[in-house]
From TrEMBL:
Organism domain of life: Eukaryota
Keywords: Repeat
SUPFAM superfamilies xrefs: Calponin-homology domain, CH-domain
PANTHER family: FILAMIN-A, JITTERBUG, ISOFORM N
Name of the protein described by the UniProt record: Filamin-A-like
Organismal lineage: Eukaryota, Metazoa, Ecdysozoa, Arthropoda, Chelicerata
Gene3D superfamilies according to UniProt: Calponin-like domain
Entry's Gene Ontology molecular function annotations: actin filament binding
Occurrences of domain Calponin-homology (CH) (ranges): 1-89
InterPro entries the UniProt entry points to: CH_dom, CH_dom_sf, Filamin
Biological-process GO terms, alphabetical: actin cytoskeleton organization
Ribonucleoprotein listed as a keyword: no
CDD domains: CH_jitterbug-like_rpt3
Amino acid sequence: SELDVSNFSTDWNSGVLLSALVDYCKPGLIPDWRNLNPNNGYENCKLAMETAREQLNIPIVLRPEDLASEKLDELSGMTYLSYYMNDSSAGYRAILNWVRQYLPYINNFTTDWNDGSALCELVNKLGGSVDMSALSRIPHEFENNCFRGITAAHTQLNIPKTISSKEMSDPEVQALAIMGYLAKFQKHASKEMSSSRKNERVYVRGVDLNNVHVNKGATFEIIGVDPSINVEKDVTVEVVQIRNGQKVSVR
């Protein structure tokens, strides 16, 4: 959810997006995807596709060289990527599990969203404000409910409008369309959590840390950090010298 996707073709050529998707479906499969060289498209695609086949049971219906090609057509890209998002896939379950942290009653990415109430509630859970009492329970007014939620998400949470209220209120809406839209909410939530914890106090645990000297190694563990935070990426550690309760040096 850290990356933006605008199509099913060129955005995937570098293999970085696919690697991120594989790691999202099952954290730890490709943990260093952020460090991949986007110029090594074929190698990145090959690694991600083979990992997905072995660990997520995603068939390789497209060759790595095709996915890495600038001539990749959207239908081919969409066909392969759809295996990550069908209702029994790891990608589907990953997004559903995230949504259920806020809306435990959600069971799908189609009809559960048609009346707009789930969307509006999610907006409220993430810091927005939608008057739930103003929502209609009349089916032909569900589109207006969805419009309220989509508008509030855009104006209050800066969530892009990747789906229309007409689409969302349609019982035949494509699950992938709603899943893609909700991924924007997940990205927003991750940013907010990271921002709110920038100055949160954390602690270190180690052996004989009161007897540490300059230029002498010391082993310690950072604790008190939310599991969703990447310690190496999101936490800054200062090594300081304290004298009479005052910080006298930093290095």
